[in-house]
Structures are given as C-alpha cells and as structure tokens.
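Hey,
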Amino acid sequence: MNSEIVESFSAMVREKSIDKDVLAGIIEEIFGIMVKKKYGLEANYDVVVNMDKGDIEIFLEKQIVDTVVDPNTEIGIDELNKRGNDEELEVGEAFVEKLELNSFGRRLINLARQSLNQKIREIEKDVVYNEYSDMLGEIVVGDIYQVRKNDILVNHNKNELILPRNEQIPREKYRKGETVRAIVKEVKKTPNGPVIIISRADNLFLQRLFEIEIPEIYDGVIEIKSIAREPGERAKVAVESQDTRIDAVGACVGMKGVRIHAIVRELNNENIDVINYSAEPEVYILRSLAPAKLKSISIDKKNKKATIVADSDQVSIIVGRGGVNIRLAIKLTGYEIDVIREEKAYEDYEEDIELVDLKEELGDDVVEILINHRFDTAIEVLTATPDKLKEITELSEEKLTEVIEIIKNQFEEEE
C-alpha cells in the first residue's frame, strides 16, 4: 500500500512538474496529521518518505514505564517483555515502533488520500500560476477548443487560456480546432485556480511579432520607440536604427514587403505604417501624418500640443477614414494635434472643368449664357470679380450664387 501511494504521487511529479522534495514534505505533513488523529497531539512520531524507492515509513516513539498512564505516549515494560522484544530496554528509555498503514483503519487512510489530493491540486494551481506569471508579455501558441459568446478558450500545454472579446482582433473569425497566437497579458489568482488572460489586440503582441519577423529588432540593432494601434484597422510603429548603416524602415518592411506582410497576415490584414522616429517633435509629427502634406506646424512642447495648417484637400488625408490616422498619430507622438484647414485657391488646382461638362448640373441654358459671356471653365467663373459677374444680366444674383455653389461642390467632390 505504501508503494502504491508514493507511486501515484510520483506520477503527478512527472506530469505536473511538482518538485519531489515539496511533495515529500506534503506527504509527511498529511501522514503526521493522521498519526495525531489516532495517537493524540502529544504523540512523538516521525514520517519518512522515500520518493525514489516508493516507500513511506511511520515511526512512533513511546516512553517505557512501569505503569502506563497515557497509552499514546507510554508503553509498559511488561508489555514489551511479552512481545519478546530482542532489545534490552529499561524503564525510562524510549521505544520506537514502526506503524503499518493498515493499523490506521480505512477511514483515516481515505482521509489522508483526500487531503493529499487537495494539497496536490493546490500545488498544481501554484505551478500553473508561477509558470504563466513568468511568461507575461510573451507569445504562446495554443489550440482553440471552445468558442463562446464573449470569449475564446484556448488549450496550451493542457492548461486553459482565455481570449476575451476585448482582447480579440475585431472582425476576426475564430474556429474550434484552429491554432492561435497571442501574448500572455494577465495572470490572476482565484478560488477556482489561476485565470490566464491572453491578447491579440494589445500593442505588445504587435511588438513581439516584429521581434519574431525582424532579426534586427530581436538583436537590438533596431529599436521600437512607440506603437499606436487600433486592432484590425491600422497601426503605426516608430522605429530607430542604432546603426547608421541600417535603414530601420527598410529592414522592417523587408524585400518586397515580405517581412511586414507576414505580420499583416497574422493580424487579419491590419494596415501597418512603419516610420522613422525623431526626437524633434515637428519632424516626428510630420512623419506620423504621412502621406499628408502640411503647410506649417507649430509646437508647444510644455503642453505637448501641436497646431498644423494644411490645405483643405489634405485634411481628409490627415484625419483618415473615421479619424483613425490622426488618432494614431496622437497616440504615437504623445502630442495633442489640432488641424487648421486652409482653403485652397482655385487657381492652384491642377485640373479645371469645362462648363460644357456641367450641363447636367447647371442646365443647358445657364451653360450657354456663361459661355456667351466668355466663361469657358469652372475656375474662370469662381475666380471672376464681382463686377465681371454682374455683367451676366440674364442671371439673377440669387441664381448666380446657386451656380457658384454647384461649381464649388464639383471641386470638393474631386478631393
């Protein structure tokens, strides 16, 4: 029975990576409790566990006396003589007796088993907690075994990891049985055991992917200075080379974009802008808003604010779809960015519009009147002086205002 018990827990040592000495200490503690339950709290005992041999030995020490008062701690000399003890022992000396497990009875043995199992489960929880605490911020690869409404359950080395909805990449589809990569974001202790939270939406996940795909970053030759990200939509990564011979952006993008494309695929086709970091805020902000062209930029370093002026046709590029471009630039640089729109002079437009092409919008009669007054293009109308427009007597002032608004809208639509 001894060897069976030790072997069962030795298997746990192998499977759960529990330290043998720790397990041996727990077994000694549990069997010590069992001895106290049977022989009292004053019992003088020793539990010896040999994990290698698969053996448990329990020794109970009693004082030899003439008259027994406490049978749990004393043994009479007459009883020893009746047993035919080979040792020559006298009153006042200690007698050590080896106890067999069977002598404790089935109830105490079952209690010991239950206590051992409970202790082992607690150790297993601590082992898992410590294991994943050491892996915080690192990438793990697991298999999806359950897709629930608000989270995904992932199997990693027979441990359950949770990918909550807010840590998933939006619009990414997860299917049972698929392999998924994520970082260990949080490890929490709970009464039911450790809860391991993983993430694919965290900025650190993107950073770890860069380290995997780009050796120069892993080796420290290129440093990631800042990351701004809206998962599944777009990300901006500022990098800096510690070696002047190496182009940081070029190394991250790779030949024909092979390196960055590998990361983009992993992130469900999330667009990634890689830019060169600069310690100069003006330069850094300019790069973070590329490819937009700015007319001017003023910096308030104390309050970390930037005011930029740009032509109206560049504002949409600066802001980006749904405002994502400017939000990421603000996160990346740490500067609050205000945009001042400057209307572009119509003379600066590279392409004009022939009025004959606006018959549908203006009407045939209006176009004919304008052409008769030597207005052949849209810009000619928009740049005409008030006196020049007053010469068009066939059109009322109200109608002329309407015509100009219609023509302006054509240019805004082209932007």
